[in-house]
Design goal:
Number of helices: 9
Largest sheet: 7 strands, parallel
Order of helices and strands: EHEHEHEEHEHEEHHEHH
Number of strands: 9
Helix content: 40-55%
CATH class of the largest domain: Alpha Beta
Strand order of the largest sheet: 3-2-1-4-6-7-9
Number of domains: 2
CATH topology of the largest domain: Rossmann fold
Shape: globular
Distance between the termini: 57 Å
Structural class: alpha/beta
Length: 271
């Protein structure tokens, strides 16, 4: 059966790729973007199967209205995807209050407002699927993008609690954790703190380690997301890309080993 999607941040990148794949297989998509003009090509290609919505996800009232509009227009929403977000680059000491709040407003609070607005709609129709676009950076972290990591780690914690809260309503959740796809995340949509010369050596190392950009988001990433939302029992978390899988698992294994190495000290804290 075809599905009806609500996807934030569909002007480009992963959101655009996934929206296009869903439409190509006959699904319907309520597509949001700050600039509705960026959605004209989707409308031209897929007509009434697309509902373009102008939205700044940091506006809680607007997010609620957008969800209600989409639900009323299509009659139901099967999949709600929180994809809107951007990257901020800066060492922790370099971050300004304005930069920190802006990153959290979009990446974390934007997803929270959409999620809150979606829950009663999905509950009322007997179920649905909330897909949170996190990142490999939602479970691991690198120097100079700590603020971005904080926003995604917060989203992961929120979603794990959410999953237990809404399961009884027939609502499923999945955290999508993409690797380093070549999107505008680190390009014109990114923001940067004023550099402190003391951290330049670290910036240089991170820049060199990053190497060439990853692959652009393709149909393959979309097929993985489609497989997740079509599954009877969708995954709680889904890494996207071999590089993400090969990077994340060893880091998690080292964390587990550290806890095991310090088990005796941990248990001594019971006294």
């Amino acid at each position: 059966m075809s599905k009806t999607w609500y996807i934030t941040g569909t002007s480009r990148g992963l959101g655009r790729t996934w929206a296009t794949a869903a439409l190509q297989r006959g699904d319907r998509v309520a597509a949001t973007a700050r600039d509705i003009g960026s959605l004209a090509e989707l409308v031209d290609m897929f007509g009434d199967a697309v509902l373009p919505i102008t939205l700044d996800v940091t506006d809680r009232t607007a997010s609620r209205a957008a969800l209600q509009n989409a639900h009323a227009h299509f009659g139901r929403l099967d999949v709600v995807v929180n994809n809107a977000g951007y990257g901020h680059f800066g060492a922790v000491e370099e971050l300004s209050e304005v930069e920190a709040r802006a990153q959290m407003e979009t990446n974390f609070f934007g997803a929270l407002w959409t999620t809150q607005a979606a829950i009663p709609l999905l509950r009322g129709q007997g179920g649905g699927h909330i897909v949170q676009v996190s990142s490999q950076g939602g479970v691991i972290a690198f120097p100079t993008i700590g603020l971005y990591h904080a926003s995604k780690w917060a989203l992961e914690g929120l979603t794990e609690a959410l999953a237990a809260e809404v399961a009884g309503f027939g609502i499923k959740t999945t955290l999508i954790e993409p690797g380093g796809y070549e999107t505008d995340w680190g390009g014109s949509s990114a923001s940067h703190s004023d550099p402190n010369p003391l951290y330049q050596p670290i910036h240089n190392v991170v820049s060199q380690a990053a190497g060439p950009k990853g692959k652009p988001p393709t149909r393959a990433s979309a097929e993985a997301v489609l497989a997740a939302v079509d599954a009877d029992e969708p995954p709680a978390r889904l890494l996207l890309g071999s590089a993400a899988y090969d990077l994340v698992l060893p880091i998690y294994e080292r964390r587990l080993q550290t806890w095991r190495d310090w088990e005796s000290v941990t248990r001594s804290a019971d006294a």
